[in-house]
Amino acid sequence: MTAVAEIMDYDEVLDRFDPVLGLEVHVELSTKTKMFCGCANEFGAEPNTQVCPVCLGLPGALPAVNGKAVEAAIRIGLALNCQVAEWCRFARKNYFYPDQPKNFQTSQYDEPIVFDGHLDVVLDDGETFRVDIERAHMEEDTGKSLHMGGATGRIHGADYSLLDYNRAGVPLIEIVTKPITGAGERAPEVARAYVTALRDLLRALNVSDVRMDQGSLRCDANVSLMPKGASEFGTRTETKNVNSLRSVERAVRYEMQRHAAVLTSGGSIVQETRHFDESTGSTSSGRPKETSEDYRYFPEPDLVPIAPSREWVEELSQTLPELPWERRRRAKEDWGLSDEELRDLVNAGALELIAETVEAGAAPGDARSWWVAYLSQQANTRGVELADLAITPKQVARVVALVGEGKLTNKLARQVVDGVLDGEGEPDEVVAARGFEVVSDDSELQKAVDEALAAQPDVADKIRGGKVQAAGAVVGSVMKATKGQADAKRVRELVLKACGQ
Amino acid sequence: MSLTGLTASELAAKLAAGEVTSVEVTQAHLDRIAAVDSLVHAFLHVDAEGALAAARKADEDRAAGKAASPLAGVPLALKDVLTTTDMPTTVGSKMLEGWMAPYDATVTRRLREAGVVVLGKTNMDEFAMGSSTENSAYGPTRNPWDTDRIPGGSGGGSSAALASFEAPLAIGTDTGGSIRQPGAVTGTVGVKPTYGGVSRYGLVAFSSSLDQPGPCARTVLDAALLHEVIAGHDPMDSTSIDQPVPQVVEAAKQGSGGDLTGVKVGVVREFSGDGYQPGVQRAFDAAVAQLSKLGAEVVEVSCPHFDYALGAYYLIAPSECSSNLARFDSMRYGLRVGDDGEHSAEQVMSLTREEGFGPEVKRRIMLGTYALSSGYYDAYYGQAQKVRTLITRDFTAAFEQVDVLVSPTTPTTAFKIGERVDDPMAMYLADLCTIPSNLAGNAAMSIPCGLSDEDGLPVGLQIMAPAMADDRLYRVGAAYEVARDAEQGGPLINRAPKLEAAV
Amino acid sequence: MSKISRDEVAHLAGLARLAVTEAELDTFAGQLDQILDAVAKVGQVAADDIPPTSHAVPVTNVFREDEVRPGLTREQALAAAPAAEEDRFRVPRILTEEA
Ligand SMILES: [Mg+2]
Ligand SMILES: [Zn+2]
């Protein structure tokens, strides 16, 4: 075992050094199928039941790109203010590892699908910090290993490993920041706020489950220090296995303190991968590799280049929902919140949920009160994050409506919510089980489509005339009108149907 | 004539007329295999039971008026590089000894759907790397014209099966000439379709951007019939071309009329001179004269960058193979060596690959690993890809002047087994003329054009056409074939020595 | 003229996961040298303004619908495994962790 590293007092670190961060976030897309094959992309299935010749890397099998994943990559890029490549390719990243069936990862190298963007993140005190985005690219996930024997189920000391390839080939988007400088003492907080903002953004885009606990959102934190006044970056370490937002902050802080201790005692930082240990809040060295990394990237010959047309990119930009920061600004205005109140909602992870509840028809006050009070309490007792409670904003809004219609008292309403949380079904089903009768009406989408078509008669005529590409504009306005909550594919179907296509 | 002496189209006609059954035809070929394959060693696996079952099915379908295709009931030899669920797929390697694929290659599926009877899997250079079939882990295949000589490679099993009348049809795959060069040295017809014309799904990859499956036969028409069975768009292969298949059967029938008036033929200037066996050159020149007589206008065309094709190929193919063959690591399938509880996964991978791959495969993996390494990529792989562009431009310019290009298929006739095994560069020269079409992706055919006068061994005429103009190969090939047979007194292949039936 | 050393060959063999023998180190060093000399002339013709060709067919944007297709059963997936346990592929202990 390696000895616990010396760490330096945080204030002293800041007296002597400026931190530089680089964050690499891997996002698993929530497409129906994997990146390059038609296997189901679902978390938690029985081992090796979601595999095929392609994702098992069997001899002779060939990849085929999931168009929906490309669409998601472009939408993410657009939301991150990135440019979308006119032309790009997949590349093979060659390295041997048992969890990787082909012993190369199909990824992108010097031609990412989107690049050069930024994300403005709001810190705890309401201040905004701009993080520049270097690139986001498409790739595939690896299988999962179970390490057997040895003491801890960890890779070190294991006798052998067992592999499940259900996750192999799941679509990943890797989002890489440019070096983040100038954050100073707030560097750990910036790191957490960035990953939080990214998570909220991805959730709003509806492209990923963004569950850090399940690994659908993973962050690798690169940290280096440079002496105060210097401009050349120091040697960096890359910390992996950071499985929660809080851990992102702790890991960065720990590495800053560890680097500072090593550097001030005359040592030097080894460029290496480090592992974060949740229980101790410290990092430990991964095994140094015997050979230097040489991935021998080259263009993937089995896949043809991707050249997103500007029309397609424009159509996708029309499908972007209201983004979290826009929503936040609007929430503050619409709901008449102080900076402090807004911050509390954000920190509680409640803002998005409240906003969605409001969009689903609830009054802001009711929505806020449900999420901040009863549901926060339920999240606490159930030991999950607010967003992971088994109730959706739509369902909360329905409960609010039932109360508004006088069909439920507040007390009964809480019982209905309990029922939903316990998996008894929709609010109306829970109500019905208790003898209420509720009429459900779900023609909202059709109404929005009709309104959008009426507002753009010339476009409607074009579609009727067979120019189905023109539907993009109408879909765009319906998505806007529905605050991005509608299913764009379904909207498109309704638009085309309404125009007799 | 015995059933095994007939061409696929003759067999198809007899089957259609009800003169023979597929079971009879299949049994005749199985008997022939049993009689001569111990001498030729064209097959790695023969599935008599499966073949007879498929034949019975073809007969039943035909009896019910539902013949699946013009080739329904006709037997075929499948190169062991395409996956099959009912026979092992070994790719000529110890690495995959006995491996049963859980899925059929698209080519395999299309053959089955067309009612073609798969007799077995043919021998090949390991992972399709070689020009002699000596690199098979299961021993060499012998050339039926002279069993001391190589049958070409990597598809030597398929070409030898045809030349020894063990099968009227075969499937090959062509990365640098592995269909055409075996065709040339065994006096058979081999076609590398336009890249993307035939699906690669289920073809165990050697070099993805070059590999292409194609038909092998004893006549141009037979190759065309098989071409139409296996070609066409496949969504499982992203590089597959989503366009109608060129009308190759129609073209072969048109060509057999023997008139090439209005066709412009370009002779590639770079593919002659030093290194070309005189007898090969003379046979080629005679073939060109024959094309002239058929009415074609013959001109000389220069493709200056073809001289760099071999170099580009021996960088691109090994690079891609070093990556494609990485999956053979003993973790999920195939050979595993050294799993004793002591060795780590990484060590077991290395021990397995060391033992499971033969010297040529290892050599190419090493070469490709080198060419892709940081610091060397630009000088090697990057430059090779630029040469690829220049070669494509040469073809484009040439096809602005002529309809097809011709050259010898390979500089020499079949060499002796063992002659070049210790000299990789000498071996690589066998693919000198075939490689440009792999790099550019256009269509090319080898058709027998007589025997070399100094050794009496077959010579191949290579015909090259633009991408998706595969039909031109068949028109010109069929016209030439008719004239050749008329002049030489019957099909060349009938002059192959009758093999002694082994007991 | 390129000269590949034994050390370099050993490094390549490591990258390629080939447990080559001492004798092979020498053989490969010589053969790779010979082959690289022969192919090096690709560097003579291809100038900077020539675009590289990675794909023979000039096609772009080939996408698959996001629809689930039947894959393999677990039994099929594991059928060829050199070792399996608990419905998973069993592999020797993994020493290093990578990207
Ligand atoms: Mg990556
Ligand atoms: Zn799959």
From TrEMBL, chain A:
Group of enzyme by EC: ligase
Gene3D superfamilies recorded: 1.10.10.410
Keyword terms, alphabetized: ATP-binding, Ligase, Nucleotide-binding, Protein biosynthesis, Transferase
Top-rank taxon: Bacteria
Positions of region (Disordered): 267-300
SUPFAM superfamilies: GatB/YqeY motif (SSF89095), Glutamine synthetase/guanido kinase (SSF55931)
EC number assigned by the record: 6.3.5.-
Chain ranges of the Asn/Gln amidotransferase domain: 352-499
Gene Ontology MF: a single term: glutaminyl-tRNA synthase (glutamine-hydrolyzing) activity
Compositionally biased intervals (Basic and acidic residues): 287-299
Catalytic activity: L-glutamyl-tRNA(Gln) + L-glutamine + ATP + H2O = L-glutaminyl-tRNA(Gln) + L-glutamate + ADP + phosphate + H(+); L-aspartyl-tRNA(Asn) + L-glutamine + ATP + H2O = L-asparaginyl-tRNA(Asn) + L-glutamate + ADP + phosphate + 2 H(+)
BP-aspect Gene Ontology terms: glutaminyl-tRNAGln biosynthesis via transamidation; translation
Entries under SMART domains matching the protein: GatB_Yqey
PANTHER family on file: GLUTAMYL-TRNA GLN AMIDOTRANSFERASE SUBUNIT B MITOCHONDRIAL AND PROKARYOTIC PET112-RELATED (PTHR11659), GLUTAMYL-TRNA(GLN) AMIDOTRANSFERASE SUBUNIT B, MITOCHONDRIAL (PTHR11659:SF0)
Assembly with partners or alone: Heterotrimer of A, B and C subunits.
Function: Allows the formation of correctly charged Asn-tRNA(Asn) or Gln-tRNA(Gln) through the transamidation of misacylated Asp-tRNA(Asn) or Glu-tRNA(Gln) in organisms which lack either or both of asparaginyl-tRNA or glutaminyl-tRNA synthetases. The reaction takes place in the presence of glutamine and ATP through an activated phospho-Asp-tRNA(Asn) or phospho-Glu-tRNA(Gln).
Homology family: Belongs to the GatB/GatE family. GatB subfamily.
Protein name: Aspartyl/glutamyl-tRNA(Asn/Gln) amidotransferase subunit B
Organism: Saccharopolyspora dendranthemae
Gene: gatB
From TrEMBL, chain B:
Active site: K79 (charge relay system), S154 (charge relay system), S178 (acyl-ester intermediate)
Classification via Gene3D superfamilies: Amidase signature (AS) domain
Entry-linked PROSITE patterns: AMIDASES
GO biological process, alphabetically ordered: translation
Domain spans labelled Amidase: 24-473
Source organism superkingdom: Bacteria
Membership in a protein family: Belongs to the amidase family. GatA subfamily.
Self-association and partners: Heterotrimer of A, B and C subunits.
Family annotation (NCBIfam families): gatA
Role: Allows the formation of correctly charged Gln-tRNA(Gln) through the transamidation of misacylated Glu-tRNA(Gln) in organisms which lack glutaminyl-tRNA synthetase. The reaction takes place in the presence of glutamine and ATP through an activated gamma-phospho-Glu-tRNA(Gln).
PANTHER family reported for this sequence: GLUTAMYL-TRNA(GLN) AMIDOTRANSFERASE SUBUNIT A, TRANSAMIDASE
Protein name, UniProt field: Glutamyl-tRNA(Gln) amidotransferase subunit A
Gene transcribed to yield this protein: gatA
Automatic annotation (TrEMBL), chain C:
Highest taxon of the lineage: Bacteria
EC number of the protein: 6.3.5.-
Annotated catalysed reactions: L-glutamyl-tRNA(Gln) + L-glutamine + ATP + H2O = L-glutaminyl-tRNA(Gln) + L-glutamate + ADP + phosphate + H(+); L-aspartyl-tRNA(Asn) + L-glutamine + ATP + H2O = L-asparaginyl-tRNA(Asn) + L-glutamate + ADP + phosphate + 2 H(+)
One example GO MF annotation: glutaminyl-tRNA synthase (glutamine-hydrolyzing) activity
Pfam families: GatC
Annotated signal peptide: none
InterPro entries, per database record: Asp/Glu-ADT_sf_sub_c (IPR036113), GatC (IPR003837)
PANTHER family named among the record's database cross-references: GLUTAMYL-TRNA(GLN) AMIDOTRANSFERASE SUBUNIT C, MITOCHONDRIAL
Oligomeric form and interacting partners: Heterotrimer of A, B and C subunits.
Biological role stated in the UniProt entry: Allows the formation of correctly charged Asn-tRNA(Asn) or Gln-tRNA(Gln) through the transamidation of misacylated Asp-tRNA(Asn) or Glu-tRNA(Gln) in organisms which lack either or both of asparaginyl-tRNA or glutaminyl-tRNA synthetases. The reaction takes place in the presence of glutamine and ATP through an activated phospho-Asp-tRNA(Asn) or phospho-Glu-tRNA(Gln).
Name of the featured protein: Aspartyl/glutamyl-tRNA(Asn/Gln) amidotransferase subunit C
Source species of the chain: Saccharopolyspora terrae
Gene: gatC
